[in-house]
């Protein structure tokens, strides 16, 4: 056993990790690597810090800080670096293998916008086809004569197809 280990055992600090808090300004964000580069504001930690925002596979909440915002980073003796606090956020990435609920979840699940747009367009096309058929239909009346449906449906205009952009909130996206 080395002297360093003996002193730590006597001081009851052996195998403990000590954490430093470092206040930094965000200089850049690399979306491909999910890393930010920060400059310490008031710390003996001299150089810029590169911090990986991805914790790993599974359940993650990644806060993407704004450039120029202030972050608080925890740094341990074993070179573990964690983002603890963010003053301003540009984006939040959530990936999870479990159910996620927003604001109580009473509205149910999020829709798949592509599929919903296709279904709405199919219904709009069906209504338009029915309307066109009714406008061109003439009913024969006995013993003679006809009754055209066109005047009954003349005031109805065909529906235009729904565009995805009309129903999609691009600020919240999801997968699976």
Strands of the biggest beta sheet: in what spatial order? 3-2-1-5-6
How many structural domains does the protein architecture include? 2
Q: For this entry, what is the oligomeric state of its chains?
A: single chain
Taking pLDDT < 50 over at least 5 consecutive residues as the criterion, the unreliable ranges are: none
Which topology of the largest domain does CATH recognise? OB fold (Dihydrolipoamide Acetyltransferase, E2P)
Bulk shape: rod-shaped
Largest sheet: 5 strands, antiparallel
What would the average pLDDT be, to the nearest integer? 84
Structural class: alpha+beta
Helix count from the secondary structure assignment:
4
At the first level of CATH, what is the class of the largest domain?
Mainly Beta
Let me know the number of strands: 9
Keywords:
176 residues; 4 helices; alpha+beta; OB fold (Dihydrolipoamide Acetyltransferase, E2P); 2 domains; two-stranded antiparallel ribbon; five-stranded antiparallel β-sheet; single chain
Concise structural overview:
This protein is of the alpha+beta class and about 180 residues long. It has helices at about 5-10, 115-135, 150-155, 165; strands at about 20-30, 35-40, 50, 60-65, 70-75, 80-85, 90-95, 140, 145-150.
